Amino acid sequence: MHRIKKVPLQLIIIAIVLLATVISLGTTGILLQQVIESNERQIINLRLKNIAQMAAKDSTVVNSLSSGASQADRSAVQSYAQRLTKSENIDFVVVLNSDLVRLSHPNVKQIGKKFSSPRDAAPTLRGQSHFSKKMGILGLGYRYFVPVYSDTHNIIGVVSVGLTEDTISQSIKTARRPILMGLIIGLLIGIIGSILLAKRLKKVLLNMEPHVIAKKLVEKNTIENSMMEGLLVIDDDHTIIATNSMANQLLPDIGHVGDKLAVAIYQTFFTVISRDNNTHRVVFNAREYLCSAAKLTYPEVGALVLFRDITDLKEIVEELDGTKQYAQALRAQTHEFMNKLQAISGLIELNKYDQVMALIPQLTNDYHQNVGYVTSHIKMPVIAGFLIGKINYAKEHEVSLILRETSSMPELSISGKEITNVIKIVGNLIDNAVDAVAFQNTQTIDLLIQYDEDGRALIIEIIDSGIGMPIEQYDLILSAGFSTKGAHRGYGLATINDIIMAHQGFIDINSEPNKGTRIYIEYPLEIRGA
Question: Its catalytic activity (predicted)?
Answer without folding.
Answer: ATP + protein L-histidine = ADP + protein N-phospho-L-histidine
